[in-house]
Amino acid sequence: MIPPGYNILKRRYQLRTHSNIMKTFFKNILSSLSSFLFPASCLICEEYLHDELFVCRSCLSNLKLHKNTEPEYIAVFQYDDKIKKLIFELKYNSKPEIGEILGKEAAKHISDLFQNSNSILFPVPLHKKRIKKRGYNQSLYIAKGFSQTLKLPIYEDMIVRSKNNVSQTTVKSSNRKSNVSGIFRINTSSIDKNILFIVVDDLITTQATTKEIYRILKENGYNNYFGLCIATSGS
Ligand SMILES: [Zn+2]
Asked: pTM to 2 decimals?
């Protein structure tokens, strides 16, 4: 026996399904129309993009490389207006994919350094409140880009950010060390102690954040660590 109201419910379901199909259909048409009328342009040179996302191939392959002299980290690109623009869009304009694009491009220049290495990529953690506000951790997206080319695993929960400190960019250089002191804590120490930790960040300026992570790693018996970032504005 058909329960009372069954046919009404069935009809409502059919109408809703039909309405969802129509909504998706019109959404796709609007999206195609909008990219036809307003084609996306490169964030750097403003030329129209073809099959690229956010930045054209030419601008990406012409990013200026940084001359690395620092013993504890590698910054792949020179911090200039182009990188500044891309990192700003990555962090403050809801474009996490830029992290992946930059990580993949940067990895091409350092792939020979990490071949067959017993290493893991560790993105600098954000506090959960910051993740909630931004929607994602930009360093994780950069690590994803590195990971695709370098074929290294990502361990994102090894250390957590337990204190929500104010952004380093708003703090004077001389106060940055104290601003990050004690903000991280180890989450698990069951990983092979001989592994090389590649601490991934977007920018390294005074190294205060990476050094605080190195301190926690050392305290827990991990003595192999190295920083890897997209750019440095430090030197
Ligand atoms: Zn361009």
From this structure: 0.80
